[in-house]
Design goal:
A: mainly alpha; Serine Threonine Protein Phosphatase 5, Tetratricopeptide repeat; about 0% strand; B: 2 domains; 14 helices; 12 strands; globular
């Protein structure tokens, strides 16, 4: 770890102190802050590492100013449209994720990559998808970045367990990874309810006709799972209809119209009837 | 299962303070008929989120509603899963509950509203409707998909819609005859910026035994517990709300949005004057200027920064629309226009199945104003917004704040 330079300390000290309530509400000088951040940015990689070195776990010391500085820097490199500068910032932060910082500090760095990161940090974030403490921020940063994320999530899934597996399954749906449809269909039979429901939603959001029968079967469950799997069916039908794949949509709507015969599910039946009418109309057009 | 639920309801009625006036509530769907209204016009209801705004939000439904369940993540050790719950999903499974009042912190508003409509319930949701823009569209989609009633918990638009001056402005704007709108609406102060700021250096505290902290955080990142993140002061954190601007903004701008007939669109250009924002705690800002495609300008002026108590925005003066902005022919067309239909209250909407005045589409648009303002503050740059696609144009990284990733298993 690099030593923090005197110049960097000077610049960080120019950032505001929390007021008596612990807030940034008093004596907030916009120009002074922006000048300090611009000068920290000029320090490049060394400044970034210097700031990271100042971070501590929450409750283990005072890192208010470097924490704020690092975030301001993340926003700054996005605001000033130098792709090279932003990329350099992201790469510098990503490199620190392999270093010996606490998980809380790494989590904070990942959050800054969610702000300013791009394709260049995707492989690094992908490596964290098996880490129980970091898989969530890593997955969230990845889906925010988007490009290249599906491959990382897909490759990480087979070895993932527990919370990481749930997180990956959900986010495969967020990025609409068609290549995962088979795996997600199998996850509908998982022993864990949350995993089954995450898979159902992911499949619906992907909008692939191969999921129709499996989701309809899932929607025959009871209680909360029935409500959520039914939502997945309706969402899938809408996606299929929008993609001109009417056969699957018609199958879903017809099934729900037939099976939601109890008065307490009348609203679902009506939603299915409305969808059916729309699908039939489009078929005729 | 149904049998158990009925027993549960009877048990509750027997054991509750309201036992003296107890009667069997027949769920709406059992009776059917127009509006599915039971003869007693009494609805089975639940309150989800029992903090400071809980009872007020429940009463705001304006219905003869029997409170069959209350739910809050702070009821650990107290919940019996019959009348008192910590998990809203168990409440929503109940078939004897027709309407739900939601008064949780805003990071839960959209998810619980959507889940409630998926379970066939009507929803009155405390403002602000959402924590970020994409949530609003998802709520509006659910409202349409299930044909449920949704009303956001801000009601000043109902007064505006009865005011002759506002009705005239509404008609002028709705007519589309005004091609270059010069109106500027400035809201100075009343946005509680200092009051609802967050602590930038919170020292983690032990989680109270009565609180399910993981469930409290829900879709937002799981952070170390600090009491300031809960109990009203949650408003000062991006994870749960968006400061005083989010807290008060929908009250101030939802009615104005109706007056200017902007329930179906959003500003296209947003610019803020603010110091760089803190990553977690909401803090100070001066003003946010938002321009619609037709030229209409809305301005939030905190009047709390850079100088407390003094206006911050001086680019433009307030200006209303008026008939004189139009040609004589167009003025005649306005005079011939019928007045807008009266807005439907939540109670009336529940009974008649007509759409509520503060429905999800309208509420999404007024909530979007707050979120766009906060995105401009947080990114420090001018934002260009596409009101149709509901996304920021040409700024991928600012767009990341339009649809925030959620912590599994929570998703829209």
């Amino acid at each position: 770890m690099a030593k923090t330079s005197f110049a960097l300390n000077e610049l960080v000290s120019k950032l505001p102190d929390p007021d008596e309530r612990g807030m940034y509400c008093t004596d907030i000088d916009k120009t002074k802050i922006e000048k300090a951040i611009a000068r920290i940015n000029k320090g490049g990689h060394d400044s970034i590492i210097g700031l990271v070195n100042m971070l501590v776990e929450p409750g283990k010391g005072d890192d208010v100013k470097p924490r704020y500085a690092l975030h301001c820097l993340a926003v700054y490199v996005c605001k000033h449209k130098s792709r090279k500068n932003r990329k350099a910032f992201a790469n510098s932060l990503a490199m620190q994720l392999a270093d010996d910082y606490s998980k809380a500090v790494k989590s904070y760095l990942i959050r800054q990559l969610q702000v300013a990161g791009g394709r260049e940090v995707v492989p690094t974030l992908g490596k964290l998808l098996h880490d129980e403490e970091l898989c969530e921020p890593a997955a969230q940063a990845l889906v925010a970045i988007g490009s290249g994320t599906a491959t990382q999530l897909r490759n990480a899934l087979p070895e993932a367990g527990g919370k990481c597996r749930l997180t990956i399954i959900q986010n495969l749906g967020v990025v609409r990874d068609r290549k995962s449809v088979g795996t997600l269909n199998r996850a509908l039979g998982d022993g864990d309810r949350e995993t089954r429901l995450a898979a159902a939603w992911a499949l619906a959001n992907i909008g692939d006709p191969r999921s129709v029968e499996a989701l309809l079967k899932a929607a025959d469950s009871q209680g909360w799972e029935r409500i959520q799997a039914t939502k997945a069916c309706l969402l899938l039908a809408e996606k299929l209809l929008a993609a001109d794949k009417k056969k699957g949509a018609l199958r879903i709507y017809a099934h729900l119209r037939k099976t939601r015969s109890n008065p307490d599910e009348r609203y679902v039946r009506e939603a299915a009837e409305k969808g059916l009418a729309k699908a039939e109309k489009t078929q005729m057009d | 299962m149904q049998k158990n639920k009925q027993v549960t309801r009877r048990e509750f009625l027997k054991g509750s303070l309201s036992a003296a006036t107890a009667f069997t509530i027949v769920p709406r769907h059992v009776l059917g008929g127009p509006g599915q209204t039971p003869p007693s016009e009494t609805f089975g209801a639940a309150l989800i989120g029992c903090g400071g705004r809980g009872n007020g939000t429940f009463k705001a439904m304006g219905l003869e509603a029997k409170k069959l369940a209350i739910c809050d993540v702070k009821f650990v050790g107290k919940a019996d899963n019959k009348t008192i719950y910590t998990d809203f999903r168990r409440v929503l499974e109940r078939k004897d509950i027709d309407v739900v009042a939601i008064a949780t912190p805003p990071h839960w508003h959209a998810l619980i509203s959507i889940a409630a409509m998926e379970a066939g319930k009507d929803v009155l949701c405390e403002k602000p409707m959402t924590r970020f823009i994409a949530e609003g569209r998802a709520v509006a989609d659910a409202e349409k998909r299930y044909k449920r009633i949704f009303q956001v918990g801000t009601f000043r638009r109902f007064d505006k819609s009865k005011n002759p001056r506002d009705i005239l402005n509404h008609k002028i704007m709705k007519s589309g005859l005004l091609k270059n709108c010069k109106a500027v609406h400035i809201k100075r102060g009343g946005l509680k910026v200092k009051q609802w700021s967050g602590i930038v250096n919170p020292t983690p505290q032990p989680i109270p035994k009565s609180l399910d902290w993981d469930m409290y955080c829900g879709p937002s990142p799981l952070k170390p517990y600090h009491p300031h993140r809960t109990g009203g002061t949650h408003r000062g954190y991006w994870d749960y709300e968006g400061g005083g601007l989010s807290d008060m903004g929908q009250h101030h701008f939802d009615p104005v949005q109706w007056t200017f007939a902007k329930d179906d669109t959003s500003p296209v250009e947003i610019e803020a004057y603010a110091p760089p924002a803190h990553p977690e705690a909401c803090g100070m800002w001066g003003w946010v200027e938002m321009k619609y495609a037709d030229g209409l300008t809305f301005v939030f002026d905190s009047s709390e920064w850079p100088t407390q108590g003094e206006p911050s925005y001086d680019r433009k003066e307030s200006r209303e629309v008026s008939l004189s902005d139009l040609s004589e022919d167009d003025q005649k067309k306005i005079a011939a226009m019928p007045d807008p239909e009266p807005l439907i209250t939540f109670a009336e909407a529940v009974k008649t199945r007509k759409r509520a005045g503060g429905n999800a589409d309208a509420a999404n648009r007024s909530a979007t104003l707050l979120h766009l303002a906060n995105i401009a503050i947080r990114t420090g740059r001018k934002i260009h917004y596409d009101p149709v696609k509901e996304e920021i144009i040409g700024d991928d990284r600012a767009n990341r704040l339009v649809n925030l990733p959620m912590r599994a298993p929570w998703h829209l």
